[in-house]
Write a structure and sequence with these properties.
Layout lengths: L3 H6 L1 H11 L5 H6 L2 H13 L7 H16 L5 H22 L3 E2 L2 H19 L10 H19 L3 E2 L2
Parallel strand pairs: 1-2
Helix pairs in contact: 2-4, 2-5, 5-6, 7-8
Length: 159
C-alpha cells in the first residue's frame, strides 16, 4: 500500500515509471499488456473525484505492475491470470459505471444478432429483404462506431 499523498498526487508519474521499467523482451507480457491503454485507464482513474474513493483501483494497477516486474519468466496464461486477479474489478467498474468498452465486447452482440438472423432465415421472413443478415450488419456497424468513439474518448480497454 502506497502513501496517500503519493497515490493522489504522483500516481501518473509512478505509473509511467513502472511501465517504462517493465521488461518487454518477455513475449508473454508484451502480447497481453497494452501499455498505452493502461496509462489511459490510469489517467482516467486519476481524474475521478473524490480521490480517496478510487485509491484502491490505483493500488491494484500498481500491484499488478509490481508482479510483472518481480516475475520475469511469466507465460501468457500467467499474465492473463494476473490481469484477472488485479484488474478485473477495475475493468468491471469502468465498463459498468463509466461506459468503457473492451475489445471483446462486440463478440456477444454479433453472436446474438447472427442467431437472430439465422432464425429469421429459417422462418422465411428474410425473403422480403433478399436474405441479407440485416441485424448482424447493424450490430457490426454499431460496434465499429462505438469502438471508434470509445478510442477517441480514451474509454477503450485493450486487454
Amino acid at each position: 500500500m502506497m502513501n496517500k499523498y503519493l497515490l493522489d498526487d504522483k500516481f501518473i508519474e509512478i505509473l509511467e515509471e513502472k511501465i517504462d521499467s517493465l521488461d518487454f523482451n518477455n513475449e508473454s507480457v508484451a502480447f497481453v499488456i497494452n501499455t498505452k491503454s493502461l496509462i489511459e485507464i490510469g489517467k482516467y482513474i486519476d481524474n475521478l473525484k473524490p480521490k480517496p474513493k478510487y485509491r484502491n483501483y490505483k493500488n491494484q494497477i500498481l500491484e499488478f505492475l509490481e508482479k510483472l516486474e518481480d516475475n520475469h519468466d511469466l507465460t501468457k496464461e500467467d499474465v492473463v491470470i494476473l490481469v484477472q486477479t488485479y484488474l478485473s474489478d477495475l475493468f468491471l467498474f469502468l465498463k459498468s459505471e463509466h461506459s468503457f468498452m473492451d475489445r471483446h465486447g462486440w463478440f456477444w452482440s454479433s453472436v446474438f444478432n447472427l442467431v437472430l438472423d439465422i432464425i429469421l432465415i429459417f422462418i422465411g421472413i428474410t425473403k422480403y429483404y433478399y436474405y441479407i443478415p440485416i441485424f448482424t450488419i447493424i450490430a457490426v456497424v454499431k460496434n465499429i462506431l462505438m469502438r471508434r468513439k470509445a478510442k477517441k474518448e480514451g474509454k477503450y480497454i485493450d486487454f
